Amino acid sequence: MTRIRFALAFAGVAVSALVFHAQTTLPQSAYKFTEIVPGVYSAIGTGTMNVGSNSAVIVNKDEVMIVDSHISPESGRAMLQELKAITDKPVHFLINTHFHYDHTNGNQAFPPGVDIIGHEFTRRKLTGDILEKGMFADLVKGLPKQLDDLKARAASETDPAAKARLAQQVPVQSAFANSLKDLKVTPPNVTLVDRMTLFRGDREIRLLYLGHGHTGGDIVVYLPKEKVLCTGDLLVHDVANLIDGYVNEWPDALEKLKPIDFVDVIPGHGEPFKGKERIDWFQSYLRDLWKQGTALHEQHVPAAEAAKRIDMTAHKAHYPAITAPGVNLPAVSRMFEVIEGRADR
Ligand SMILES: [Zn+2]
Fold first, then answer.
1. Closest C-alpha among 246, 187, 256 to residue 220
2. Ion ligand 1 neighbours, Cβ < 5 Å
3. pLDDT (tens digit, 9 = 90+) per residue, 12-23?
C-alpha cells in the first residue's frame, strides 16, 4: 500500500510538471534540447508526452551517446526521432544511470547494435522481478485509477483555465499508459562495476560508480575536457527519490563527486545547474534524515509515525518544496529496510 501511494505521488510529480508546461506553450515536440557545451545537450520533456526523466545527448565525432532512455517505449522512440533535429549521426551508445523505470523503459526503442551500458546492479534489477514488485509494478497497478481520477478532476473542475490544463493531461497520460502495454524490459548488454572509459574521436567519456546512493548501482557520466557531469538521480535539482536509496551511504558517494573537476551538471530530473553547492546541501539533508530515522527506529517508533515526526524544515532554504514537518512514508520504510539489513546489496 505504501509503495502504491508513493508511485502515485511520483506520477503526480510528472503531472504537475505537465501543468506547468501546459501554461506556457503547446509545443509539438516531446523534448527541449539545450546545448550545454558544444555537442553536449540536455533533453527535458516539454509536457506533450510523459517522458519521466531528463536525458543527456553527447554527439561524438562519428556517433551519438544518449544518457538514459526515458519512461516508456514511446518516449524512447520520440527521443530517437527528435534527435534528428540536432544531429544526423547514428546512436551507438545508451547509458542507463540506474535501473528505475523512468530512465530505462525506453531502452527497447533503441535499435539492435546500440550498446546499452549500465552498472551490473542495474542489469541484475532489470533481469529480475521489477515487473512483479517494487516501484514500477506499483506504478502499473496504480495507473488506471490515476487516469480515472484525472478524468474526473477534468470533468468537475469549474475554473476554465485549470479545466483546460487537466483536459490536456488526459491524452498525455492515456498515451503513457498505452505505451507501457508494449514494454519489454531491456537490460544493459554491457556492464561495469567501478569504472569504464570510452574514447570517441577527441572526446573522453568516463562512466563512474561511486558507491551505494540513489540505488545500488548508480553511475555518473563525466566528460573531463568539457567539464560536464551527468549525475542521473544520484544528485538532482531537488531532493532525489529515496525509495531504493541507501541514505546512510549516499553522502559518501556524493563526497566522491567533490574532487571531480566539473562545471556543468545535467541531472536526471530538473534543470541543468552549475557548481558543487548542491552536493553539500543534499549530503546535509541525507545525514539529518538518517540521524532522525535511526533515532526513531531505535525507539521502536513505527515507520508511519516516524514519517510524521521527522522534521526536515531546517533544509527548506535549499529545498523550497519542504513546507512542514513530515517526510513521505516510503522514504522512511526504505530507511528502516536498510537499518534492518533487508535492502538489496
Ligand atoms: Zn531514479
1. 256
2. 100, 233
3. 444 444 444 444
